[in-house]
Design brief:
The mean pLDDT is 97. Helix 2 crosses helix 4 (95-115) and helix 6 (189-198) packs parallel to helix 8 (248-259). This protein has helices spanning 13-25, 65-72, 87-92, 95-115, 148-167, 189-198, 218-231, 248-259, 284-287, 297-310, 312-336, and strands at 4-8, 30-35, 55-59, 77-80, 119-123, 171-176, 179-180, 203-206, 212-214, 216-217, 237-240, 245-247, 266-269. The chain has eleven helices and 13 strands. The protein has 337 residues and is α/β, with parallel strands linked by helices. The N and C termini lie far apart (59 Å). It has a domain at 4-181 and 215-240: 3-Layer(aba) Sandwich (Rossmann fold). The strands form four sheets. The protein has a seven-stranded parallel β-sheet, sandwiched between helices. It has a two-stranded parallel sheet with strand order 7-10. It binds thymidine-5'-diphosphate (TYD). Residues 87, 178, 188-189, 192, 204-206, 211, 213, 248 line the site of thymidine-5'-diphosphate.
C-alpha cells in the first residue's frame, strides 16, 4: 500500500541518496523532503527527483515547530537525517549542533507523538559509542561520545529512545559507520582529500594518520535504512557497518593512486582534539534482517573519487567557503599547543 514518507535533511548527502532510492524503489510512495538548506543542504542534490510527481520539497528547519507540523501532516513514515554532522565544525562552533541535533530531534519526536506516525527512523551515528580501542560495539554498548558533535547525536539518540519508552512513539534507531559516495560535502575526509589532490595541494592528515574508520558506501547505507524502516522492530537500535576498516593513511594513498598523484602530497598536521582512534561496529542484528553490504570498497572509492573529478560544477561553488573554513580549523588546532 502506498505510503507518505517525510525525509528530513533530504537535500544533504545521504538524505538525497535515500530520497532518490525511495522514489525509484517504491512506485506508490510519496516522498516529502524537509530541509533548511544550510551550507551542506543543496537543491542540486535532489536534481534527479525534483520534478517527479511523487516528490515534494519543503524549505524549513527541524527546530521550527510550525514547519515540522506542516511537513508531518498525513505522513506514515519519518526518516530523520537532518543534523549538523562535522566533528571539526562542532569543536569550533558547537551551538548549532546542540540546537539542530538535540532540540531539532526533540521537535521531530514531539510532532510525531502528536501526529501519530506509523514509524520513525532516527539516523544516529557510530560516534555515539566513542572510540573502540579493540573489538566492536554492539547496540548494547554504552554511549561515550567524545566530540560535541557525537554528544549532540547521543543526546538525540537517547531522546528518541525515551519517546519510545514513555509515549510509545514507534521509533527505530540506526547507527551507521563513516559513509562515503558522490555528493558528500567536501569537509569530510574522502571528498576533501580528493579535491586537494585534484588541485595538487597537500592532504592534511591529522596526527599520525593511523586512526581507523569503517567505511560504508552510501548505497549500502540507504538499503540498510530501507530494511530497518520496513522490517526492523520498533524500539530497537541497529548498527550499520561497512566492513571496510582502513587507516586514514591507507585511504589517502588510495585517493592519490586513483588520481595518479604522488604520495608526497600527504602532510601530517596538528591532531584534532579528542580525536577518536577507531570506530568499529558489530552489525549482526541488522544482518539478521537480511541486509549485507554489497559494495567493494576499493571500487566504490575509486568511483567516488572519479565522480568528484568529473563534477567540477557541483563542488566549484562551495570550494572557497570550505577552504577558508579549513584554514580557520587548522589555525585553531595549531594555536591550542
Ligand atoms: P571525517 O571525514 O571528518 O569523519 P569522522 O571524524 O566523523 O570520522 O574524518 C575521518 C577521519 O579522517 C578522522 O579520523 C579524521 C581524519 N581526517 C584527517 O586526518 N584530515 C582531514 O582533513 C579530515 C577532514 C579528516
Amino acid at each position: 500500500m502506498g505510503k507518505s514518507v517525510l525525509v528530513t535533511g533530504g537535500a544533504g548527502f545521504i538524505g538525497s541518496h535515500f530520497t532518490e532510492y525511495l522514489i525509484q524503489q517504491y512506485l506508490d510512495y510519496e516522498v516529502r523532503v524537509l530541509d533548511a538548506l544550510t551550507y551542506a543542504g543543496r537543491r542540486e542534490n535532489l536534481a534527479a527527483v525534483d520534478t517527479h510527481p511523487r516528490f515534494t520539497f519543503i524549505h524549513g528547519d527541524v527546530r521550527d515547530r510550525s514547519s515540522v507540523q506542516q511537513a508531518m501532516q498525513g505522513v506514515h513514515y519519518v526518516v530523520h537525517f537532518a543534523a549538523e554532522t562535522h566533528v571539526d565544525r562542532s569543536i569550533l562552533s558547537p551551538d548549532a549542533f546542540i540546537t539542530t541535533d538535540v532540540y531539532g530531534t526533540f521537535i521531530m519526536l514531539e510532532t510525531a507523538r502528536q501526529v501519530g506516525v506509523e514509524r520513525f527512523v532516527h539516523v544516529s551515528t557510530d560516534e555515539v559509542y566513542g572510540s573502540a580501542e579493540q573489538g566492536a560495539f554492539t547496540e548494547q554498548s554504552p554511549l561515550q561520545p567524545s566530540s560535541p558533535y557525537a554528544a549532540s547525536k547521543a543526546g538525540a539518540d537517547l531522546l528518541a529512545q525515551a519517546y519510545h519508552r514513555t509515549y510509545g512513539v514507534p521509533v527505530l534507531i540506526v547507527r551507521p559507520s563513516n559513509t562515503f559516495g558522490p555528493r558528500q560535502y567536501p569537509e569530510k575526509l574522502i571528498p576533501f582529500f580528493t579535491l586537494r589532490a585534484l588541485h595538487d595541494e597537500p592532504l592534511p592528515l591529522y596526527g599520525d594518520g593511523q586512526q581507523r574508520r569503517d567505511w560504508l558506501y552510501v548505497h549500502d547505507h540507504v538499503r540498510a535504512i530501507d530494511v530497518v524502516l520496513h522490517k526492523g522492530q520498533v524500539g530497537e537500535a541497529y548498527n550499520i557497518a561497512g566492513g571496510n576498516e582502513r587507516t586514514n593513511i591507507e585511504v589517502s594513498r588510495l585517493i592519490l593512486h586513483t588520481l595518479g598523484k604522488p604520495e608526497s602530497l600527504i602532510q601530517f598536521v596538528e591532531d584534532r582534539p579528542g580525536h577518536d582512534r577507531r570506530y568499529a561496529l558489530d552489525d549482526s542484528k541488522l544482518r539478521a534482517l537480511g541486509w549485507q553490504p554489497q559494495a567493494d570498497f576499493e571500487i566504490a572509492l575509486r568511483q567516488t573519487v572519479l565522480w568528484y573529478a568529473q563534477h567540477r560544477e557541483w563542488w566549484q561553488p562551495i570550494l572557497q567557503e570550505q577552504l577558508e573554513y579549513r584554514e580557520f580549523v587548522e589555525q585553531w588546532y595549531a594555536q591550542r599547543q
